[in-house]
Design a protein that fits this description.
Number of helices: 0
Number of domains: 1
């Protein structure tokens, strides 16, 4: 279990229009997202509660989905081999395969990020919100981490292999990316909830628990 603060790495300039698709109920046929810029965890505060949505920025305009309305894919091109470097030990045994959606954009893969641009400064105490990865169910483990300037693992944000929940702390205005790694092909369901406190009176606020589905392809 860990609580990790994730600060802004990428500027949030150039806001685009948002189109709400499907509402909060699960779609009959989830929309597959497999390439381009997608903020998997997109945060907002509306009507007295926090909200989590998926912001698809891969097209000409941003499209907003409920997490249950999309299928997030790691394509075969995401497959790599776990390096023989102890820094990657959280992924498993060196030499085994892993599927990584990279922190640095690859146009052929999903560029999965965190977005808190829609959170206004001053609404939450210390402008902070905790994103809790509560559970992961699938054939392997999920790890989310950031790299240092040399491309080596720096901060492990989420690792289902050593127990959950893990908490990623975001700040209002944050927009950043991380590596999302999976250790086996197949389908993963990931449950996430956001929580914080109002700046005005310290009252707790939270989102509903949302469910993501990732499909890792051989």
């Amino acid at each position: 279990m860990r609580n990790t603060s994730l600060r802004t790495l990428v500027g949030a300039a150039g806001a685009v229009g948002v189109l709400l698709v499907g509402g909060q109920a699960q779609a009959a046929c989830p929309v597959p997202l497999e390439q381009g810029h997608v903020d998997v965890v997109g945060l907002a505060y509306e009507d007295g509660s926090l909200e989590i949505a998926v912001h698809d920025e891969s097209g000409a305009e941003e499209v907003e989905y409920a997490p249950e309305d999309v299928l997030l894919r790691a394509l075969p091109g995401a497959r790599t081999t776990i390096p023989a470097d102890p820094a990657y030990g959280f992924l498993g045994t060196a030499g085994n395969p892993a599927w990584i959606l990279p922190e640095v954009q690859n146009p052929d893969l999903l560029w999965a990020g965190f977005g808190a641009e829609e959170l206004e400064s001053g609404v939450l105490r210390d402008d902070e919100v905790d994103v809790s990865f509560q559970s992961v169910k699938g054939p392997g483990r999920l790890a989310v981490w950031t790299d240092d300037v040399f491309g080596e693992p720096e901060t492990v944000l989420v690792n289902s292999g050593d127990g959950l929940p893990d908490t990623v702390r975001l700040t209002a205005g944050d927009h950043t990316h991380a590596n999302w790694g999976f250790t086996r092909p197949g389908s993963y369901t990931v449950k996430v909830k956001a929580a914080g406190h109002l700046a005005a009176d310290g009252a707790p606020v939270s989102s509903r628990t949302v469910t993501y589905t990732f499909e890792v392809r051989k």
